[in-house]
């Protein structure tokens, strides 16, 4: 529908249709189409019956192709008409007379439409006529419908109806057709895609491919147009910079030596060649520096990665993991150049001649026709070599490719060296961690224990988590789990110092709260010694528990550590409510001891927060879930292996590499057999010493340990006599039989007994010396009611 005159006034003309009008032989308008009304904003009522010259903006304008017509109406030309708003409108027209020549039918279109159409036609004609750009129009099946390639290669086979593989090599055509199918499917143009191929009889070997989808008026795809232009030197340089950028992005993302080599090989195929392998010196795989290059051998190389464009690895080639055979003696010239850090471009005959017939089959792939060798050279060391072959790509390597590979290999060598140095440091840290941690399993008279440690990141990083099982006097045992802040060598070293401190303080038989207080002081000293910028990251958490199999009591103290989990023999579990103390290093806050009685066969689980903080919830919320899982893994019979239980827990918690390392200690409690202990209490009277000896003799006889009677009587006499003389009463004597015989004498004094060497004239001072000679171990520990002096003897006396 046309616009009304009022609506058309002042509006711009945006009309692309065909205007029709009928004029009589005098030039009077007899018919005025709706399209004409839309173009000039005059209705048919306003125009019909008026001379057509009234519509001309310049009646004197006589541009036309033929003026020899009746009434001065040209057969074709251009005219400048007047819009209702007064603005001129230029049209191109053609007048066709009727059969009786009484009227003329005038057809007109805006002149700009004619100009645009002509320009489009001229552009298409020029594109197909030039010889610098390969232009193609392809159907939905990508068969060529029109191309200008035949204009450049007279006498060559016709390309119409063919595919891109007539213009490009087969492999390049397959990649290009995949890209064109995406253009057809999505409508997104392809701009400047670098194509490593060449058209027949054309010397350029690198092309830039651009393509866009062709559509019919309703917007349905009808085909695709392609423009294939040879890369200029500047464009090739830009493409090389792009490849260097991609290499820096894709190579070096991992700190694993093998993964870095695989990334390098996967990038070079097909970016540069069809077959690529990377070989490294044996020492590099272990994180060590490669040896200096001497002699004819090739550095004792081992193949690290091998990638082919076909995807499959030929059996004839040296496979990844295999050791490279020694090179011929004297060393080939290519080898000397590689040792100097040069990237070498060689032909197949040259490579075969220098390798020799026996090695050529291992190092020359089928259909290989051009090869590049480049050393992985970093910090003055040749870490290995990267080799790139062309087998499917027809064009040989040139100096530009050699320079490009040299740059890529130089950057890749730094990534390989970084991975090598990380491997060395990680191996040293893991070795340090393993040396600092105790044996994974321990079996004492008090508990059966199994510990596990899992580094962070699935083994990629170590930290300061540790566990320990420390035997104490009188068959008691200390269970320890701790977590040092941070990761790496510093955390592992700090962990070693804290573990040593805990072991030393445990030998002093301190109560759990007192021990943590001393360790807290030590951590504060470590923070004071650290660099001021690192003081805030020096800290740790620790859980310390002491279990006595005689009384079945367990005393637990925590320094900011997650609470332990207890699984009873009936497979019920609970999280022990331990009073949480501050983390080690805070200072100024007391620690509290929680005491509980454990049934024989109970499983006590001590762990670090990495086990329960790996999910979205925090540690306290995850601890009940851990208790439920432990209850499911521990059966009622108590036959489940602690190692198997620990592995099951860790595998579930660390199925995704955790950001924190994990330490887990499981301990199954034991109790002594009935009748394995006996105790007596005596007043502080010297007359009780014979009674004490007599009681001990009778008990040893009941245990069939008469062979220990003499030494045990001497030990009891000395210890009871010293208690009566220096401490007062009451005095408690206790014997414990297990794999050793333990004798304890307790008194109310806190005086520390000391072993000293008596002089020849001294009347006393030889008692403790005698006790030390008759026992394998002896010591003293303190309690709230005094102290206890204990000794241990083997059940079979030494000869």
Helix content: 25-40%
Give average pLDDT, whole number: 82
Q: Helix- and strand-based class?
A: alpha+beta
Global morphology: elongated
Uncertain stretches:
1-13, 62-71, 151-158, 198-204, 294-298
**Total strands:** 32
Lateral strand order in the biggest sheet: 16-17-27-26-22-23
Number of helices: 20
Distance between the termini: 126 Å
Radius of gyration: 48 Å
Q: Biggest sheet: strands, sense, closure?
A: 6 strands, antiparallel
Strand content: 25-35%
What is the strand and helix layout of this fold?
Elements: H1 5-8, E1 19-24, E2 29-32, H2 34-40, H3 44-47, E3 76-82, E4 88-97, E5 103-110, H4 111-129, E6 134-138, E7 144-147, H5 149-152, H6 170-186, E8 190-195, E9 207-215, E10 221-230, H7 233-250, H8 257-271, E11 275-281, H9 282-285, E12 301-308, H10 333-339, E13 344-347, H11 348-355, H12 357-363, E14 370-378, E15 381-390, H13 399-436, E16 441-443, E17 447-454, E18 463-471, E19 477-487, H14 489-507, H15 512-529, E20 540-548, E21 553-559, E22 565-567, E23 573-575, E24 580-581, E25 593-597, E26 603-607, H16 619-633, H17 642-653, E27 662-669, E28 677-682, H18 688-702, H19 709-726, E29 731-737, E30 740-747, H20 767-774, E31 777-783, E32 786-794
Parallel strand pairs: 21-24
Antiparallel strand pairs: 1-2, 1-5, 3-4, 4-5, 6-7, 6-10, 8-9, 9-10, 11-12, 11-15, 13-14, 14-15, 16-17, 17-27, 18-19, 19-20, 20-21, 21-25, 22-23, 22-26, 26-27, 28-29, 29-30, 30-32, 31-32
Helix pairs in contact: 7-8, 7-13, 8-13, 11-12, 13-14, 14-15, 18-19, 19-20
């Amino acid at each position: 529908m046309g616009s009304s005159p009022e609506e058309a006034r002042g509006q711009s003309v945006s009309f692309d249709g065909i205007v029709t009008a009928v004029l009589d032989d005098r030039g009077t308008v007899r018919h005025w189409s709706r399209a004409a009304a839309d173009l000039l904003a005059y209705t048919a009522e306003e125009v019909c019956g008026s001379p057509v010259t009234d519509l001309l903006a310049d009646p004197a304008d006589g541009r036309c192709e033929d003026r020899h017509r009746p009434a001065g109406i040209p057969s074709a030309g251009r005219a400048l008409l007047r819009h209702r708003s007064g603005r001129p409108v230029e049209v191109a027209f053609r007048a066709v007379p009727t059969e009786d020549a009484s009227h003329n039918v005038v057809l007109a279109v805006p002149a700009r439409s004619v100009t645009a159409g002509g320009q489009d036609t001229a552009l298409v004609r020029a594109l197909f006529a030039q010889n610098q750009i390969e232009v193609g129009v392809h159907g939905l099946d990508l068969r060529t419908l029109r191309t200008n390639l035949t204009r450049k290669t007279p006498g060559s086979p016709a390309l119409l109806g063919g595919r891109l593989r007539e213009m490009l090599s087969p492999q390049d055509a397959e990649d290009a057709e995949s890209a064109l199918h995406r253009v057809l499917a999505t409508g997104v143009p392809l701009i400047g895609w670098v194509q490593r191929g060449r058209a027949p009889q054309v010397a350029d070997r690198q092309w830039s491919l651009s393509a866009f989808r062709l559509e019919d008026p309703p917007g349905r795809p009808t085909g695709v147009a392609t423009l294939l232009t040879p890369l200029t030197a500047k464009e090739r340089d830009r493409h090389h910079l792009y490849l260097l950028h991609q290499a820096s992005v894709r190579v070096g993302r991992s700190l694993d030596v093998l993964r870095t080599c695989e990334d390098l090989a996967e990038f070079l195929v097909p970016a540069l060649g069809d077959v690529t392998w990377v070989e490294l010196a044996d020492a590099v795989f272990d994180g060590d520096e490669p040896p200096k290059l001497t002699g004819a051998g090739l550095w004792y190389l081992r193949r690290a990665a091998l990638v082919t464009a076909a995807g499959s690895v030929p059996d004839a080639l040296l496979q990844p993991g295999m050791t490279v055979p020694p090179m011929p003696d004297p060393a080939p010239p290519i080898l000397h150049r590689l040792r100097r850090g040069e990237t070498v471009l060689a032909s197949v005959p040259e490579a075969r001649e220098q390798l020799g017939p026996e090695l050529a089959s291992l190092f020359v792939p089928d259909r290989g026709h051009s090869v590049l060798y480049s050393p992985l050279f970093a910090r003055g060391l040749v870490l290995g070599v990267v080799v790139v072959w062309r087998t499917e790509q027809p064009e040989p390597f040139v100096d530009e490719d050699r320079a490009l590979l040299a740059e890529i290999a130089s950057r890749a060598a730094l990534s390989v060296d970084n991975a090598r140095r990380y491997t060395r440091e990680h191996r040293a840290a893991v070795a340090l961690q393993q040396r600092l941690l105790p044996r994974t399993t321990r079996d004492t008279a008090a508990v059966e224990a199994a510990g596990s440690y899992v580094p962070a990141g699935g083994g990629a990083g170590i930290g300061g988590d540790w566990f320990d099982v420390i035997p104490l006097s009188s068959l008691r045992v200390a269970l320890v789990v701790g977590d040092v802040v941070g990761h790496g060598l510093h955390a592992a070293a700090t962990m070693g110092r804290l573990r040593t401190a805990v072991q030393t303080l445990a030998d002093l038989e301190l109560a759990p709260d007192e021990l943590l207080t001393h360790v807290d002081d030590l951590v504060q000293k470590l923070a004071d010694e650290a660099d001021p910028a690192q003081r805030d990251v020096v800290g740790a958490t620790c859980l310390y528990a002491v279990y006595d199999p005689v009384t079945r009591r367990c005393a637990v103290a925590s320094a900011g550590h997650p609470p332990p989990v207890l699984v009873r023999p009936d497979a019920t579990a609970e999280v022990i409510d331990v009073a949480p103390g501050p983390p080690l290093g805070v200072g100024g806050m007391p620690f509290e001891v929680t005491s509980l009685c454990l049934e024989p066969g109970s499983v006590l689980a001590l762990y670090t927060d990495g086990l329960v903080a790996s999910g979205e919830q925090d540690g306290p919320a995850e601890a009940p879930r851990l208790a439920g899982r432990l209850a499911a893994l521990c059966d009622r019979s108590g036959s489940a292996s602690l190692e198997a239980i620990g592995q099951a827990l860790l595998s579930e918690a660390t199925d995704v590499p955790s950001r924190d390392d994990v330490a887990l200690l499981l301990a199954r409690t034991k109790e002594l057999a009935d009748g394995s202990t006996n105790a007596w209490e005596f007043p502080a009277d010297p007359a009780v010493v014979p009674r004490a000896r007599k009681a001990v003799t009778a008990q040893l006889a009941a245990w069939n340990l008469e062979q220990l009677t003499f030494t045990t009587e001497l030990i009891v006499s000395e210890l009871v006599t010293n208690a009566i003389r220096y401490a007062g009463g009451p005095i408690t004597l206790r014997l414990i039989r297990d794999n050793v015989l333990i004798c304890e004498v307790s008194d109310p004094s806190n005086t520390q007994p000391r072993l000293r060497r008596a002089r020849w004239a001294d009347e006393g001072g030889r008692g403790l010396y005698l006790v030390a000679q008759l026992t394998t171990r002896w010591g003293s520990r303190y309690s709230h009611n005094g102290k206890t002096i204990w000794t241990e003897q083997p059940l079979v006396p030494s000869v």
